[in-house]
Amino acid sequence: xxxxxxxxxxxxxxxxxxxxxxxxxxxxxxxxxxxxxxxxxxxxxxxxxxxxxxxxxxxxxxxxxxxxxxxxxxxxxxxxxxxxxxxxxxxxxxxxxxxxxxxxxxxxxxxxxxxxxxxxxxxxxxxxxxxxxxxxxxxxxxxxxxxxxxxxxxxxxxxxxxxxxxxxxxxxxxxxxxxxxxxxxxxxxxxx
Length: 192
Known about the structure:
Number of helices: 3
Strand order of the largest sheet: 3-4-5-6-7-8
Number of strands: 10
Radius of gyration: 16 Å
Oligomer: single chain
């Protein structure tokens, strides 16, 4: 049996962080399951969805911040590095942190799918596992491919035990500790 990449990662976390620091601005790198991954630069609709979510979070929970492009230490023993499209946490939670933050204050990680060949593996498989392993209570996936919002909750043993999928247009209740109701009708205008 061949060992998995997590048994033998491509490089150490320290080597990855050095590589990421020197990557050009047009490239965003992540280190998931022991592999370096390239995350596409967001398009205009992707950015508009992030702003839509930011406004909803600010209106309903002004004491929280939705931090864009949050660098998180993920996976078992913090051996992964993921750059979430959004990270919801109490305002001030990342003061004094470097590029990659511990997830102890994070209430929710957010990803918006991109139109690239790695979206399925990255956003629907590997990131939920990494965020669950890091103990992030809620993972919100806004999926432009099938016009849905999926809410992952109850992280346990590196997996989310519960997920709910809603079509764009539904009112989606994000559970505690997030406690925000998302009116998703507006997301229909950001699908290509």
